[in-house]
């Protein structure tokens, strides 16, 4: 029986988990059937074939298409930068948002190359979240409202969503979340981010260890991990992933930071990411570890470590091509090509 609502914002989020839609298995069957008749040896498009089945399952479409793809980039600032864990100053978050608007960032060009929509969600950059070594990142109301705001990325009839972020200091935030959710040692989850040296990485591990130790009693509740150790862009990305599930829009997740948002949902329910494709494995070393724990196989491994949704957008190009190929190819019967004996 559903529990009596208490009116607490997190309960509204928690209540969505059992409501998540499942895969459309009938659509997958139709795709498999067509796949078998296309003019190519069976299985010869490898993972592209799996991708089309994944699209069918989560778009709920027997003939899946990617005609309105969107890359959503969420930007937030972090009080933990006061601890000297990032080589670039916090103003860079705002400056890069201006660069996105002017079309000068890497993500702008990848979106042009693959004809992808791009929307940037700026999340109160003038109000960094609390320094997680001494206080909670957010209160419950802010965290829940930001998750809800992220859900707005799934709007306007989009048929595929890629999520990425921009936020100086957020590889520290991602590492704290991963350490909080998946345990181990802080050093297992830490990396150079935008370019820390070995000494900086060691200092960053101490900062992460301190933040997680402060919250030892609350690590069993993933939404509390998000509220205490997270950031606004992480909360918004978690909301976008959930909204994709509810509205039948499959989601491509970017690098280490975006994966930390996905990990919150995974910890709530391991099936919560079934509609997600992990676009790439970042060069941030702990990304691979996180994906392995969650049993996810990334599509690309290009040595990228930029964020901004760039790895997810690269994968989106492949997903678009997979859908187009399945949709547009001739069958053996159409083309008069002899079948195998
Ligand atoms: O997501 C990743 O795999 C990733 C790896 C390294 C850096 N980043 C980006 O770099 C910024 C965070 O790095 P830092 O060193 O400031 O923590 C932030 O804007 C991220 O988008 C992102
Ligand atoms: C220049 C710059 C661009 C970025 N894009 C995503 N994170 C970034 C961090 C920096 C420092």
UniProtKB/TrEMBL annotation:
Q: Which GO terms describe its molecular function?
A: nicotinate-nucleotide-dimethylbenzimidazole phosphoribosyltransferase activity
Q: Which keywords belong to this entry? A: Cobalamin biosynthesis, Glycosyltransferase, Transferase
Q: Does the keyword Magnesium apply?
A: no
What reaction gets catalysed by this protein? 5,6-dimethylbenzimidazole + nicotinate beta-D-ribonucleotide = alpha-ribazole 5'-phosphate + nicotinate + H(+)
Which Enzyme Commission number(s) are listed? 2.4.2.21
Lineage top rank: taxon? Bacteria
Hey, which pathway is this one from? Nucleoside biosynthesis; alpha-ribazole biosynthesis; alpha-ribazole from 5,6-dimethylbenzimidazole: step 1/2
- Which CDD domains does the UniProt entry name for this protein? DMB-PRT_CobT
Please give the Pfam families that the UniProt record associates with this protein.
Answer: DBI_PRT
Record-level GO BP terms: cobalamin biosynthetic process
Cite the active-site annotation.
308
Q: Which NCBIfam families match?
A: cobT_DBIPRT, PRK00105.1
The UniProt function text for this chain reads: Catalyzes the synthesis of alpha-ribazole-5'-phosphate from nicotinate mononucleotide (NAMN) and 5,6-dimethylbenzimidazole (DMB).
Identify its protein family. Answer: Belongs to the CobT family.
Q: What is this protein called?
A: Nicotinate-nucleotide--dimethylbenzimidazole phosphoribosyltransferase
Tell me the classification of the organism that encodes this protein.
Bacteria, Pseudomonadati, Pseudomonadota, Alphaproteobacteria, Hyphomicrobiales
